[in-house]
Amino acid sequence: MKYAAKKTSAPECADADHKSARRVPPVSDEAIETASRLFRALGEPSRLRLLALLAQGESCVTELALSEGDDMSAISQRLRVLRSENLVVRRRSGKHINYALADQHIVDLVFNALAHASESPARVKGTFTK
């Protein structure tokens, strides 16, 4: 079945209708690129699940593998990706290497993302729609 192409029209406002002519991101292009890599690392469910576990406190690879029901090599690979994007840090404790979230920003990011994903659709007054 063919669909008719949707016609687009010119914007209904002029530059003079706006407070500023052009908006720019409030951070550098380098920061945008770094954040993009961070979200790419977060975008895989098994890595995000590891971050959610680590948000509860530090753990070694063995503990994480048991929690996930996965082998240690798979967990190690996921942790390697998360560590390369500075989402997790590691600390040696005897024979164990313990992993933890890198800082409070990452804790907040994980909790906020999961809270947002868990809530029912927001009901906002106004003209914005999904």
Give an account of the 3D structure.
This protein is mainly alpha-helical. It has a domain at 40-117: Orthogonal Bundle (Arc Repressor Mutant, subunit A). Helix content is 46%, strand content 11%. Strands 1-3-2 form a 3-stranded antiparallel sheet. The chain starts with 28 loop residues before the first helix and ends in a 12-residue tail after the last helix.
List keywords for this structure.
130 residues, mainly alpha, Arc Repressor Mutant, subunit A, 3-stranded antiparallel β-sheet, 3 strands, 46% helix
List the helices and strands and how they pair.
Blueprint: H1 29-42, H2 45-54, E1 59-60, H3 61-68, H4 72-84, E2 88-93, E3 96-101, H5 104-118
Antiparallel strand pairs: 1-3, 2-3
Please identify, by name, the CATH architecture of the domain at 40-117.
Answer: Orthogonal Bundle
Number of distinct beta strands: 3
In one word, what is the shape?
Answer: elongated
Rounded to an integer in angstroms, the radius of gyration calculated over CA atoms is 21 Å
Question: What's this, in brief?
Answer:
This protein has a domain at 40-117: Winged helix-like DNA-binding domain superfamily/Winged helix DNA-binding domain (Arc Repressor Mutant, subunit A, Orthogonal Bundle). 46% of the residues lie in helices and 11% in strands. It is built from five helices and three strands, in the order ααβααββα.
